[in-house]
Automatic annotation (TrEMBL):
Keywords: Hydrolase. Hydrolysis of 6-phosphogluconolactone to 6-phosphogluconate. The gene is pgl. This is 6-phosphogluconolactonase. Pathway: Carbohydrate degradation; pentose phosphate pathway; D-ribulose 5-phosphate from D-glucose 6-phosphate (oxidative stage): step 2/3.
């Protein structure tokens, strides 16, 4: 099963972060009530971190049983552990250090000072190690998704680049063409740093729900292109969807170039 994108437009990035945080808390709570645990894939970028910061400030924070939440990452900058530019570091600062997570359920992508060493080849090995970690979690949890190679993600968060990249899948680079592996090393990324690790489109598409977060005028063209049937190699955001739900959570500026038939009322 796959889902058509649903677009929600908020006044600005602040409202977007607050509403998305409330939506995430509700979805996690529902999953935990139904199955005892929940699984979320985090993203880097300003909007993903604004969501986490909004959740840290929200009363909804206390409704979540943080010890029964699995956290994964959609992509990572291949930098040393604790580097201020790592998505993991930024997520810790925005929320994770302030809640009672089970460390065994937190799965940052490998760092460049880990056992695989640094440099482009090490990123490939580290990516394979993360794929193995996903497969191990999937096997432990039951049937899993994507042929049992990834656990069932309840929500997978993504930012949107002005060039339509999602996670670290950039237009035309080999990573966006990957159809077999679930995690790959990314080389020569146009956004620094050039070496990264990313989930692939098949892994992203195995999630129950995929939410894209985008605010600002510089995202308007990318959102319009991706939602108007562009090809996923040229516009990676066009190729992401969830099995049950695909949400595009935008602010007015990011939605400003969408065709009228895609535009819902503001504030949803
Ligand atoms: O490592 C990264 O840079 C991010 O994972 C990247 O994919 C980000 O999510 C987008 O570029 C959107 O970023 P903003 O939300 O800051 O616009």
């Amino acid at each position: 099963m796959t889902s058509d994108p649903q677009v929600f437009v908020h006044h600005d990035g602040v409202e977007l972060a607050v509403k998305a945080a409330a939506r995430l808390a509700a979805t996690v709570l529902e999953a935990q009530s139904e199955r005892g645990h929940a699984s979320v894939v985090l993203t880097g970028g300003r909007n993903g971190n604004a969501l986490l910061a909004a959740l840290a400030e929200s009363p909804a924070r206390d409704t979540i049983d943080w010890s029964r939440l699995d956290l994964w990452w959609g992509d990572e900058r291949f930098l040393p552990d604790g580097d201020p530019d790592r998505n993991h570091t930024l997520a810790r600062q925005a929320l994770l250090d302030a809640v009672d997570l089970d460390p065994a359920r937190v799965h940052p992508m490998p760092a460049s000072d880990g056992p695989w060493g640094e440099g482009p080849e090490a990123a490939d090995t580290a990516a394979a190690a993360y794929a193995a970690e996903l497969a191990k979690a999937a096997a432990a949890a039951g049937p899993g998704a994507h042929d049992g190679r990834v656990p069932e993600f309840d929500v997978l968060l993504l930012g949107l680049g002005p060039d339509t990249h999602v996670a670290s899948l950039f237009p035309e680079l080999p990573a966006v063409r990957e159809t077999e592996r679930t995690v790959v090393g990314v080389h020569g990324a146009p956004k620094p740093p050039p070496t990264r690790i990313s989930l692939t489109l098949p892994a992203i598409r195995s999630a129950r729900e995929v939410w894209l977060l985008a605010a600002g005028e510089d995202k308007a063209q990318a959102a319009a292109l991706a939602l108007s049937g562009a090809g996923e190699v040229q516009a990676p955001a066009a190729g992401v969807y969830g099995q049950r739900r695909t949400l595009w959570l935008l602010d007015l500026a990011a939605a400003s170039r969408l065709p009228g038939d895609l535009l819902p009322p503001v504030g949803g």
